[in-house]
Every structure is written in C-alpha cells, then in structure tokens.
Design a protein that fits this description.
The protein has about 240 residues and is an alpha/beta fold. It has one domain: P-loop containing nucleotide triphosphate hydrolases (Rossmann fold, 3-Layer(aba) Sandwich). It has nine helices and ten strands. The strands form two sheets. Strands 6-7-8-3-9-10 form a six-stranded mixed sheet, sandwiched between helices. Strands 2-1-4-5 form a four-stranded antiparallel sheet, covered by helices on one side. Strand 4 and strand 5 form a beta hairpin. The chain starts with a strand and ends in a 12-residue tail after the last helix. Bound molecules: adenosine-5'-diphosphate and magnesium ion (MG).
Length: about 240
Amino acid sequence: MIDIEQLTFTYPDGTKALDGLSLRVEKGESLGIVGSNGAGKSTLVSHLNGWHLPQSGSVRIGKLKTDKKTAEQIRKMVGLVFQKPDDQLFMARVYDDVMFGPSNLGMEEAASHAEAERLLRLFGLWELRDKPPAHLSQGQKRFAALAAVLVMQPELLVMDEPTSDLDPRNRRMLIGLVNNLTTTKLTVSHDLDFIWETCERVCIMNKGKIAADGPAKEILSNRELLEANGLELPLRLQGS
Ligand SMILES: Nc1ncnc2c1ncn2[C@@H]1O[C@H](COP(=O)(O)OP(=O)(O)O)[C@@H](O)[C@H]1O
Ligand SMILES: [Mg+2]
C-alpha cells in the first residue's frame, strides 16, 4: 500500500526533515510512527497524500508514484487527518466540511449524506452540524476532521496526533473506532498507549530516518531503545 524509497526532504530554510527514509507498509496493516519532536513525522505524513513531493527518492501509494500528475488520484485514496484540525476545517458549517470531500470527488450524494450523518451522530456532532467549525471545542474539531476524512472511505487512513485534544472517554471511543476499521492505517502519535492499543507494528523515527521497526509490543516495551530515541515507555508499562 505504501512503498517509500530513500526519501529526502529539506525545507527552504535548510532544515533536513527527511534523510533517506525507506518504508513499506502492506495493505491492511496498522502502523504506528513514534518519535520525539522534530523527528520528521509530520513531514513524512505530508508526503503520503502528495502534499509534498519527494525532492529525491520516491513515494508509491498502491501502484501510483506521487508526482504532479497523480496528486489528484492519490488524494482519493489517502485520507489524511492533519495534526491541527484548524488546517482541515474551512467551511461555514460543520456539515459542509464533512460533505466537501465527497462532492469534490464527485461521490454519490445520497450515500455520502447518509454516511456523513452516521459519522456525525457517532461522534456526537449531529446537533452541531450547522455551527461554524471555529466554534467547536478542540476535541469536537478533531472528530469533525476525522468525519470529513472517513466519509470519503479512504483506502489508506493517515492520522497525525489524533488523540492530542481528546478527553479519556473520546480517546477510548477513537480506539474502538480505529480498531474496527479494516483499511490500512498509519498513525503518528506521542500517545504510546494509543499506539499500543491500535497498532500491530511500530516504527521509531529519529532525525528523518527510521531508527527501529518491529512488532508494536516489542518496540514499545523496549525502554533502552525508546530512551535512545528521546521517548519514554507507554504509561501502562511505567512503574512495572
Ligand atoms: N515549514 C517548515 N520550514 C522549515 N522547517 C520546518 C518546517 N516544518 C517543519 N520543519 C522542521 O523540520 C523538522 C521536522 O519537522 P516535523 O516533520 O514537523 O517533525 P515532527 O512532526 O516529528 O515533530 C523539524 O526540525 C522542524 O523544525
Ligand atoms: Mg508533527
């Protein structure tokens, strides 16, 4: 589903965010990506839907290599939930934001409406559908952004820090939801307990590279490895 080879990306100010990163993800996998601040996680994520194109190396989603010509097709396959929901929500009403993707992609309207309603009800946002997204709480915005992505039924779901604004109950709800989705999933998070519960495989990123890659429970319980990469054990393992 994802095949990244020797991906390098340097920002205009000279910051090297990705440094020869290679990664393969099979269809149906649930991969967690962890790493300290500035490791390059969000930069990697922005290459998965063609927002950024490789400066060198390549990114393939399914059979398609990301470039200017495939950008539109790739955005249909990849549902990206941004780190900051404010970057994703821009319409006048919550409902319009959720329906923006489906109408843009020319998806069948009645079916999309039914799916939008199902998701908004599930996320407790149906009563708030006429509100401007700016008036929602951070957690509500997070779910609105998630609904806006899931309504397009992406083959690959990519989430950047999905639990950062969620209260414990909503975080638990998201864990259940994510575990019930059969699509390929890639989740970036500092919430290692969330990764523990939702991912079977974990990669640690450090300085724009993959520093470790393996079964989630093995990687996430390896204190030395985590600490060497600026991370700490998941809370569930601390003190044990
Ligand atoms: N727009 C930008 N311009 C310059 N440097 C940036 C920009 N965005 C991110 N960076 C830098 O690139 C590196 C990787 O950032 P990022 O991908 O956001 O890391 P992470 O998501 O792992 O915290 C950091 O050193 C960050 O400061
Ligand atoms: Mg980030």
